[in-house]
Amino acid sequence: MERGTDRAVLVTGGAGYIGAHTAKALKEKGFLPVVFDNLSSGFREAVRWGPFVHGDVRDRAALREAMSAYQADAVIHFAGLIEVGRSVQRPDLFWDVNVGGTAAVLAAMQDAGVTRLVFSSSAAVYGQGSRGALETIPETAEKAPASPYGDTKLAGERLIEAHCRAFDLNAVALRYFNAAGADPSGRIGEAHEPETHLIPLAIAAALGARPPLTIFGDDFDTPDGTCLRDYIHVNDLAAAHVAAVELALPAGAFEAANVGTGRGCSVREVVDAVGRAAGRRPPHAVGPRRAGDPPSLVADPTRAQGLLGWRARFSSLDQIVADALRWERLPAYGCGARAPVSSPVSEAAE
Ligand code: UFG
């Protein structure tokens, strides 16, 4: 298994939504993304920019073997379960895969002598506390996850921080706000099953591919009564991961940074943006609140800007929706995928 001249980065969960976009961004920056994924929710078709290793993230020996075979310089650890609602029903699974998986990644890194880790964390580590709807969240805000999913992300961060101190690793945890959009090439995009996220559901409703959208509550203490979220284009997220891999950090360092825009958009604003882009307003009705939804989650992204020299470039709501719409109209894989008639993109671009 020759890795060639590119610096190899092991990407666990690299067949998933954010992982695949990050693998593409790594390749474009001269890295070799080695995707390690068990395809339980990812797609083989999304692995296009480097080798694929089929494996479970709890399998320390398989991780070590992949890191050694490709002489990985760094690991980006995405693999894990993400559905907040399911985490309430199956906390056992979430702790096993998310925290057990992170422990296995850390152990395998020690075995293989890899010292740099970038970890997929989440705004779900923060609680709502007494924050007002228009206040942004700095990294120092109280950590009080509202779900077992958020608990496992916080536990993962703490495990990583302790390993950094004890074993001279160094790591960056990126706390994502609301990942959205798709690569403009149309070759990779969001494909969750079940899909629970607002933007794909609103687009599918506008296209008539799914039932009308339910707005989960319009009686929040926010400007238009619907929840505010900080939507970040998946390619901006991908760029933040590449910057974190490239960061010079001393042994033992652990950093955490929010990845968001600093701007909150309401559910109604998303519905309007989808209507503008699709030429048809998504049919919708207001329903009750969804359990556990905080009124507002908006990043203070100052730390990521300073630490990583990064800022969001593609994350206007209109750009996110335009790119997501292109993907939802013709997804290359996933449940809604149609058989490819002809590829509009040259294979030479790979
Ligand atoms: N929403 C609706 N109708 C829907 C779906 C969503 O009104 O059919 C609303 C939600 O109530 C929320 C907003 O749209 O106000 C965004 O919801 P998403 O499900 O798209 O995203 P979340 O903010 O719930 O989830 C995000 C990340 C999770 C993370 C969570 C932390 O996707 O990974 O934030 O709270 F865990």
Main sheet overview: 7 strands, parallel
The helix-strand sequence is: EHEEHEHHEHEEHEEEHEEHEEHH
Question: What is the averaged pLDDT score?
Answer: 93
State the CATH class of one domain: Alpha Beta
Strand content: 15-25%
Strand order of the largest sheet: 3-2-1-4-5-6-11
Shape, per Cα inertia axes: globular
Count of DSSP strands: 14
Name the poorly predicted regions: 339-350
| Architecture per CATH nomenclature, i.e. the level-2 architecture of one domain | 3-Layer(aba) Sandwich
Structural class: alpha/beta
Bound ligand species: uridine-5'-diphosphate-4-deoxy-4-fluoro-alpha-D-galactose
Q: Find the CATH superfamily of one domain.
A: NAD(P)-binding Rossmann-like Domain
Short structural summary:
This protein has 350 residues and is of the alpha/beta class.
Please tag this protein with its features:
350 residues; alpha/beta; Rossmann fold; seven-stranded parallel sheet; three-stranded mixed sheet; disordered C terminus; binds uridine-5'-diphosphate-4-deoxy-4-fluoro-alpha-D-galactose
Describe this structure in words.
This protein is an alpha/beta fold. It has a domain at 7-180 and 232-259: 3-Layer(aba) Sandwich (Rossmann fold). The protein has 10 helices and 14 strands. The strands form 4 sheets. A 7-stranded parallel β-sheet has the order 3-2-1-4-5-6-11, with helices on both faces. Helix 6 (198-206) crosses helix 8 and helix 8 packs across helix 10. Residues 82, 84, 122-124, 149, 178, 196-198, 201, 213-216, 227, 229, 267, 290, 293, 297 line the site of uridine-5'-diphosphate-4-deoxy-4-fluoro-alpha-D-galactose (UFG).
